[in-house]
Amino acid sequence: MLEDLFDKVKFRMGSDKKEQRPATMEVPSDLLFKCPRCQQVVFMDQFEQNCKVCAACGYHSRISAKERLEITVDNQSFHEYDSGMRSKNPIGFEGYEEKLQEMRSLTGLDDAVITGECRIMGEQCVIGVMDSRFMMASMGSVVGEKIARAFERAADKNLPVVLFTASGGARMQEGIIGLMQMAKTSGAVARHGEKGLLYITVLTDPTTGGVTASFASLGDIILAEPKVLVGFAGRRVIENTIQQRLPDDFQSAEFLLEHGFVDKIVTREEMRKTLADLLKIHYKGGGCCE
Amino acid sequence: MNELTAWERMGLIRQKTRPTVREYIPMIFDSFIEFHGDRHFGDDPAIVGGVGWFDGTPVTVIGQVKGRNLEENKTTNFSMPHPEGYRKALRLMKQAEKFHRPVICFIDTPGAYCGIGAEERGQGEAIAQNLAQLMRLKTTVISIVLGEGGSGGALALGVCDELAMLENATYSIISPRGFASILWKDASREREAANRMRMTAEDLVELGVAERIIREAPGGAHRNPVLTAEYISGYIRSALGRTRGLSMEELLEKRYGKFRKLGQFTLPE
User: Fold this and answer.
1) Cis amide linkage into residue A206, ω under 30° from 0
2) Beta strand B141-150 with B162-166: parallel, antiparallel or unpaired?
3) Which of A51, A136, A200, B265 lies at a CB distance of 3.0 to 4.6 Å from A268, suitable for a disulfide?
4) Radius of gyration of chain B (CA)
5) With contacts defined as CB-CB under 8 Å, which chain A residues touch B186?
6) Secondary element (H or E) of residue A117
7) Does residue A24 surpass a pLDDT of 60?
């Protein structure tokens, strides 16, 4: 009898769980947005009207490179560089070509970055935007080459550069050639900087690994969107190394600001105006003696 | 011709008896004086740096320090530098530039350290600065991979005019274990990963990442460290000779060009 009672309780507890699950677990992704930071759920159209920013906690979620350009650059002012550049398979990694093909059809992009020239509230600049949907915007030959070319062209034309970074790091599938893009891009940034030209980095969600350890950390001015993830090592890697759980705000934009690695946290709404102001204040130098 | 597979070479270079930079320095350089600290936070024992003489020429020497036992490895953090290590290296590189000394870097690390302190003090920023500043450093930079060249943590001492590999050394984007775990979700396939990643000295020369391979004593550097040190000295002598005739502008153009050409892509006609 006692056993029966237990069974009944067990059954009831089990069925309770089952009844609860559908309501909390299955969020139809096209109708609702669930914030990965604060877990709040809102209607998708509300979330989109809010520039894909979580109204509850201010987390600035990932947006595509195309969406980013739309909300950042002046109408009709964007001219793309190196459209159609595609990666080869430098270490002959099995399945890489297929993966690239799949990503191309999924995103409509050739690789993880779009670069070009534009105006932001009238201010001319070279711009680059990374798109985390394409293999987590990892940096291989194409990302490295497009970023390097963007800085070289900006140096030739005496233009500032604005980069929106997002990346999982160097692209594993390209092996050592992926790693070498860090040196190539950093070198291009340094040469551009030596001409006295401005480079603004905007850190967006997520910026990690080899991109953090190269051009993303080299801006004259480093901005970040609120609550985004920025760091060198992956969170799980660190947790495994030190065998303890990390605080929730670890490697957030706010964490970086506190430790002195970000100049300013800027919301999506204020970004365009802030960039334009910064470009303007750097135009043709100050009033200092020659 | 070295017949060992990448995986077999990894076994060899991870042996405790493999000579470290600390053993090579007195065999290669005269009157080495070690310098400490990054002038901002602290001193990182995972990186050794200082000045000495090579063939009667003053040079700056910087290297990652593997330990040969647990005690040493506790001190040198298994040769995984923190940001202050990279900043110490950069400080000494800038010092070398000021006094027109060539910089000789020895790479031997599984990677930059991944931990809370490293993130708080900007591991990414420290490595990025080294890459950018080394590319423009107005003096000769020669880098030699002694054992493991692991990822960005190795590259931070590897932006140079010439990169040489000891014949059993490896250099890769990530450890084979990490590679297998990320791409195949199976860390146990690390041997297969090592043999596919193209991380041996020959692979790197073929891919245009390294310029030269330095012979080791028969059976590996640990069999005869003195002989291996002689081979390394011979290489440094020839490498310094190759950069000597160049103007500063030529040197820096060549250095950038070496990295600039790495990448494989197509553009539409």
Assistant:
1) yes
2) parallel
3) A51
4) 18
5) none
6) strand A113-120
7) no
Residue of A nearest to B156 (CA): A183
Is B224 strand, coil or helix?
A: coil
Structure tokens at B196: 């596919």
Which chain A residues contact residue B122 at CB under 8 A? 217, 259-261
**Domains along the sequence of chain A with CATH:** 1-61 (no CATH), 62-281 (3.90.226.10)
Q: How far is A215 from chain B (nearest CA, A)?
A: 7
Chain A (177-196) residues lying within 8 Å, Cβ to Cβ, of chain B? 177-184, 186-191, 193-194
Across chain A, what does the average pLDDT equal?
Answer: 90
For residue A8, the model assigns a pLDDT of: 47
The whole-number average pLDDT for the span A65-77 is 96
For chain B, say whether A250 makes contact (Cβ under 8 Å).
yes
| Amino acid in the structure at residue A44 | M
**Fold observed for domain B16-239:** 2-enoyl-CoA Hydratase; Chain A, domain 1 (3.90.226)
Q: Which residue has the higher pLDDT, A290 or B107?
A: B107
Residue B248 CB: number of other CB atoms within 10 A?
A: 10
Determine which of A5-19, B30-44, B187-201 has the lowest per-residue pLDDT on average: A5-19
The arithmetic mean of pLDDT across residues B63-70, rounded, is: 95
